[in-house]
């Protein structure tokens, strides 16, 4: 009887040890959580993206959302990636959110990234793109916008918290497909920019990387997808609230897969436009682009995948991008320009010149890296970054897969490549006026940014 009792006790102890080992193994793995909150305005607001808009939007085509994924590593580090249906936002907006998230949930700055889908049919921000309109916001419009963005700020914080509360053990894997509606929009003649259109010889990035998250039973819980293209299916004559192709893509993916959250980030597509048409077909085109992504995502989700299991390293920093500012004489001449934005920009810069004795010499562009060992590297860049950067990072970074996102943490202006300097044109020369930046970037800016990215990738290892 004693021997029998000892055998039973031994078996029980073995089962307990095995059970404890299994629990510890589960606890040691990755966990994921998702959340989604509507941010459709309660009253009509001015839409952003085009300078000639001067009235609030006419109606709502589709609701807007903030979506988030939270990731907890085996080392208990929690990170959150947020995507906002918006044209963008200033770094001051992101900094406040990061401070609140740190206070509430303990996430350090390198553990939170906030991205924009850059929709040109979304509300104008009260911080950022401060010189875009030829007809400035009225006081009533500004007050309504301020109230809206204060609400959005709070809802982003809440969404991050909900995603963290939703953390459950699971598996994340990367699959990559392709969608072809993005087109290089920089038309050149004899090597010089001549306007917007379709440049079939220009560089593009049609890749569609998708991070899919499944639970222990293999059930899909949510995903993140990335595509390098402007959300400009709608032109300036379309004055209805809409998330453009990015909003439709997320909606259709969620409808097809059922009870999941599909988080959209935008790649380095600042010089890429979707296939566009006249006002009466724009909505159909945006829906078609969204469905094209949803169909490709559905195909990718059926593929066999390898889970991402490498340790998660994170890093956050700034790259000081130097300006090539105009002279005081050039600014004074611009005061007589026919376009009101150019005149206002010149006045703003001259005022700064009088106060400080000089114009700003550089801008602290945010750079963020999430690195899963050698398996996967995610780079998040502020500003409207052109496709050359993503293509270069995919060549240079020593990683099995590279995911480059723009419009992250601070949308402060276009970030053109060195190749574009001699070509000139909108992204290089004109766009900085709308962002109220002194002038175009100085020679060598691309290498400065790329070097800083490499430094932060090493820091995240």
From TrEMBL:
Which family is this protein grouped under?
A: Belongs to the neutral ceramidase family.
One of the record's GO molecular function terms: metal ion binding
Q: Which residues form the Neutral/alkaline non-lysosomal ceramidase N-terminal domain?
A: 30-257
Q: Name one GO biological process term.
A: ceramide catabolic process
Q: Extract the Pfam families matched here.
A: Ceramidase_alk (PF04734)
What is a single cellular component term in the Gene Ontology annotation?
A: membrane
Q: What is its EC number?
A: 3.5.1.23
Q: What class of enzyme is it?
A: hydrolase
Needed cofactors, names only, are: Zn(2+)
Tell me how the cofactor is bound. Answer: Binds 1 zinc ion per subunit.
Q: Which residues form the signal peptide?
A: 1-25
Q: Where does Zn(2+) bind?
A: 118, 230
Q: What is this protein called?
A: Neutral ceramidase
Key words of the record? Hydrolase, Lipid metabolism, Metal-binding, Signal, Sphingolipid metabolism, Zinc
The species this protein was found in: Gimesia chilikensis
Q: Which domain of life is it from?
A: Bacteria
Q: Name the reaction it catalyses.
A: an N-acylsphing-4-enine + H2O = sphing-4-enine + a fatty acid
């Amino acid at each position: 009887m004693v021997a029998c009792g000892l055998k039973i006790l031994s078996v029980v102890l073995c089962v307990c040890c095995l059970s404890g080992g299994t629990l510890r193994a589960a606890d040691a793995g990755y966990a994921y959580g998702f959340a989604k909150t509507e941010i459709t305005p309660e009253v009509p607001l001015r839409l952003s993206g085009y300078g000639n808009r001067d009235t609030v939007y006419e109606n709502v085509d589709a609701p807007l959302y903030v979506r988030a994924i939270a990731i907890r590593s085996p080392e208990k580090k929690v990170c959150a990636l947020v995507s906002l249906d918006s044209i963008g936002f200033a770094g001051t907006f992101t900094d406040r959110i990061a401070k609140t998230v740190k206070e509430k949930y303990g996430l350090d700055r390198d553990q939170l990234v906030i991205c924009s889908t850059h929709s040109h049919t979304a509300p104008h921000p009260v911080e950022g793109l401060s010189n875009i309109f030829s007809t400035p916001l009225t006081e009533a419009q500004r007050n309504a916008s301020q109230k809206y963005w204060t609400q959005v700020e709070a809802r982003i914080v809440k969404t991050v918290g909900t995603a963290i509360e939703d953390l459950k053990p699971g598996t994340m894997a990367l699959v990559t497909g392709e969608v072809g509606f993005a087109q290089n929009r920089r038309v050149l003649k004899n090597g010089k920019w001549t306007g917007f259109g379709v440049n079939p010889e220009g560089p593009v990035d049609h890749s569609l990387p998708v991070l899919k998250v499944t639970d222990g039973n293999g059930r899909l819980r949510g995903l993140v997808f990335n595509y390098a293209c402007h959300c400009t299916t709608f032109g300036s004559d379309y004055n209805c609230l809409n998330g453009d192709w990015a909003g439709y893509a997320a909606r259709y993916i969620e409808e097809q897969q059922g009870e999941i959250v599909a988080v959209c980030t935008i790649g380095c597509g600042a010089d890429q436009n979707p296939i566009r048409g006249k006002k009466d077909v724009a909505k159909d085109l945006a829906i078609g682009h969204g469905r094209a992504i949803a169909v490709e995502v559905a195909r990718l989700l059926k593929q066999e995948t390898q889970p991402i299991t490498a340790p998660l390293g994170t890093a956050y920093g700034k790259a000081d991008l130097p300006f090539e500012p105009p002279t005081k004489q050039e600014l004074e001449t611009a005061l007589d320009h026919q376009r009101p934005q150019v005149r206002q920009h010149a006045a703003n810069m001259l005022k700064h010149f009088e106060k400080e004795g000089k114009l700003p010499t550089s801008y602290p562009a945010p750079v963020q890296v999430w690195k899963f060992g050698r398996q996967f590297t995610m780079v998040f860049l502020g500003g409207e970054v052109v496709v050359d950067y993503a293509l270069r990072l995919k060549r240079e970074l020593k990683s099995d897969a590279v995911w480059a996102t723009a419009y992250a943490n601070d949308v402060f202006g276009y970030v053109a490549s060195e190749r574009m300097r001699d070509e000139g044109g909108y992204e290089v020369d004109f766009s900085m006026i709308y962002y109220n930046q002194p002038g175009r970037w100085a020679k060598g800016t691309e290498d400065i940014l790329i070097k800083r990215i490499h430094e932060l990738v090493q820091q995240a290892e």
